[in-house]
Write the structure tokens for this entry.
Amino acid sequence: MADSAKESVERGEFVPRPLEEHMGWLMSRAAHAIGTALTESLLASLGLNLRDYAVLIAAERAVGAGAPRTQLALSQAARLDKSTMVVALDSLEGRGLVERKPDPGDRRARIVEPTDAGRELLARAEGMVTDVEDRVLADLDDEERRVLRGLLRRLVTGGVPPDDDPAPCP
């Protein structure tokens, strides 16, 4: 394959596809657009980053479903490595947004639960995130958004149902 690529270049026949046909470039640009809009929105007014927002969501959904998670289980659910989770939880706990409590089933583990302040901030952030998504995805109708969300979910999870929630999203 490399030889044929070299030969096509040498013969002057090689013409790359336009960037708009490269999935990696398109996905990168789309992620950048929504990520930048979310970061500017969340950081500017709430002092929250996307990592901490994801941790708050996973923790609140677990508690809301009656299945609070340990730090380790929460890192797996939020798809963060353990050291990144520790940094996120230290930040959130320092701001009074989560509490780490001893796990009654394993004295070495800690259960993570949002505080009332964490829940309030999360509720405010959720509204802002919805507004940003609506703005960034304004050119897509509801069905296109549903399909895009499903395809992205499949790509992110590798076809495995996500474990970020103990209960399915409505």
In short: The longest helix spans residues 23-46.
